[in-house]
Structure formats: C-alpha cells, structure tokens
Amino acid sequence: MSRTVRIFDTTLRDGEQTPGVHITPDQKVAIAHRLKAIGVATIEAGFPISSPGDRDAVARIAREVRSCEIAAMARCVAQDIDAAADALRDAERPVIHVFLGTSDIHLTKKLRLDRAGAVRAIRECVARARRHVADVQFSAEDATRTERPFLRQCIAAAVESGATRINLPDTVGCMLPREYGEMIRDVVRFVGPHVIVSAHCHNDMGMATANTVAAVEGGARQVEVTVNGIGERAGNAALEEVAVAMAMKRIAESGVDVQQVTALSAHVAEVTRVPVQPNRAVVGANAFAHSSGIHQDGILKDPSTYEFVPPAMVGAPGHRFVMTSRSGRGAVAHHAARMGYRLTDAQVDEVYRAFIEVAAYSDGAVDADELARVIGAACGPPPNPTQELPPRDDPKRCRFEEVMLL
Ligand code: KIV
Ligand code: ZN
User: Fold this and answer.
1) Which of 109, 123, 343, 401 stands 20 to 30 A from 59 (CA)?
2) CA distances to 252, 290, 300 from 354, in Å
3) Which pTM value belongs to this model?
4) pLDDT band at 122 (very low <50, low <70, confident <90, very high)
C-alpha cells in the first residue's frame, strides 16, 4: 500500500450539526486530542463565525493540538473568513475551509445568486483566505447536483485564486459509488497533481462509506469523515468504517490507528449522547456478537469463519456470544469449560438440554449468571476456574478469555 489518503475529520463541525447535539468547548478540545492521537491528518474544529463558543473551541484547539492540521469553516463571506483566520491564529498548520453552494438549486433557491456572481464570490473569498493562510480548501457545496461544466468553472476559479484543495460534497447523499467515483476521477484529471481532491459524503441512501471508498479508488487524496458517522440527517461517512475498509482491503494508508476506534467511538457517543446503533459496523455492540449455534461453533473453531474484521484489530474486547434458544452445544460447553468444568459428552448433552428449557421461556438472552446456575444445577459447584483450564487441542480455537457472554 504505497498510497496515502488524508483523513479530514469533521466530527466537531459537520458531526456537531447532528440534530439535538451540542458539544461544549471543553468537550471539543478533549475530542480533538483523541483525534490527533488516532492519527487523523486534519481536524475541522468548527465554524468560528457561528457562535462565540465555536470560536473559542477552534482557538483553543488551534493552540493546544499540535502536529496536526486544524481547519475552520467559513461561508464565502469576508467576515466568516476573517473570523476563521482569527480563531486559527495560533495553529501550527491552519486550513481555512471556504464553501459556497454551486448547484442551481442552491444558487437560485438559497443564495439568490447567479452563476457569474458565484464565480466572482469564489475568486474573492478564496483569495482573501489565502492572504491569511497557506492552505485553503474550497468546497463546492452540493457539488454532486451541480452542472458539470459550471462545477469546473467554480473549481478553476478557486484553484486560480489559490485554493490548495477542492472538496466535492455529496451534500444530500444522492450519489451511488460508481457515479461518485467517476466524478472524482474526472475532477482529479481536471485539476492535476498539485491540488488535493477531497471527498465528503452524506448517508441519505446509506452510501456514504461506499461512496467515500469509491472516491479513494477514483483518486481522491483526502476523505472527510465523522466518528460514528454522526452529522446532519442520516450523517456522514464514518471514520471507523472508512479507515477499516481502507486497511482491510489494502486500498490506501489512512494514518489512522484503527486499534483506537472502539474507544473513540464510545467517547464520542457519550459526549454527544447519540448512542451507537447495535448493528453498526465496526463499533456497534453487535459488531462481534454471535447468536446462532452454527455461528458460535464456527467462531470457537476459528473466528475467521464468521468475522472478517478481527475485533482485536479495532480495539474491541473480543467475540460476544448471546445465548438464546438458537445457541448451540458448543457455546454452552465453552462456557462450562471457561468456568473450569471438564464435562463428558453426556454431561454437555444434559447441560444443553437444561439450558434450552430455560432459554425457551426466557424473554431475552440467557445471561452468564443464569447459564452458570444451569450448569451448576446439572454438574455441581464449579471447580476453581483460575487454577486450571482444560487444554485447547487446536491452536486456532478461541482462547477462553476471547469469548464473552452478553
Ligand atoms: O455537506 C456539505 O456540503 C458540507 C460542506 C459545507 C462542506 O458539509
Ligand atoms: Zn457535510
């Protein structure tokens, strides 16, 4: 994997636009330190003109978080750009991120600006931002619904005025991976190698991660993501999904230490009070949970049977077994062995029958204590489990501590 793709994290800006979420400046600084530690290239710290709190958070992050680019967002408006520059004053590597809606929908319905006015505004604002900092990103908001020749005019205006990065947001999440990948490829060819083309995908059709990966395959050198995929409406492409996909499929180097994604996800969920959906990829509570007997048996024999992403790789505690009437003998026997029992096949049968009786009438999963009671009732009190666990016959078999009961 010789190619590197920059991770531009916008949890603190686009992520904070999640309905109902507010992150205090202290919390933003704490998240920014973690983002730096995990290895993102750029932290978009906020939108300074939008509130004194955001201005303060951007300024503090710019001061405290070193060796990492800090970006601040600005509309194509002089005061926004000056406020962004001011908040970024102490940053080691400041980036001003200027955006303007370029689709006809945005120009006519929202901005009431004609195309010539838009191109003029882009030129003026990008040039103004460049007078403040060396790195200016221009985002053509709603790029994916912008007529392509006009999008090229906007991009050319931004690059001629000094933009070092062009971001092509799929603002309403209307793209499919093939379409977005082709669009990125086209713009990469148009701007040439000196300008970084960036992808920014929303998840309105559940395509954000797939579109982001397609953009990387199309030549994007930067991708914009949020932790847990938080953001407006259905959210943004998720940092953890994109980084893991890039690593697992050896698409490009992201610089992200994926071992930290589970902890970072939990931290952001706690701060934002946006719980992580259980079946969410990589960081959901069920991402490494197994319920059916066939799957549990497979995991015990070799985890690669039913897991593509190894939990240890992303810092997850291990495989989790949910014990229900769909669960099998293997999981029951494994749990008994973990408690220190050495059961004969006949005893395993007996314990399993007793477990199924309990599971059949339980209104949820059978938890570890309940299963221990079932095993104890059938086989007597457990031997001291820490003394001696039965030997494993197959080196690929899960270690006892790798499987937890939910
Ligand atoms: O989704 C979007 O278009 C954005 C831009 C303002 C970058 O977040
Ligand atoms: Zn966005």
Assistant:
1) 123
2) 51, 21, 21
3) 0.95
4) very high
Model confidence at 387: pLDDT above 60: no
Q: Which domains does the chain have, with CATH numbers?
A: 6-272 (3.20.20.70), 289-405 (no CATH)
CA 271 – ligand 2 centroid, Å: 20
How many residues in the chain? 406
| pLDDT, mean of residues 252-269 | 98
Rounded Cα gap, residues 273 and 24, in angstroms? 13
Q: Give residues (CB < 6 A) around ligand 1.
A: 14, 99, 139, 141, 167, 169, 171, 200, 202
* Look-up of token digits 């970072």: 264
Helix (H, G, I), strand (E, B) or coil at 316: coil
Q: How far is the CA of 64 from the centre of ligand 1 (A)?
A: 26
Closest CA to 319 of 341, 298, 333, 349: 298
Distance CA 286, CA 306 (A): 13
Residue 275 C-alpha from the chain's centroid? 14
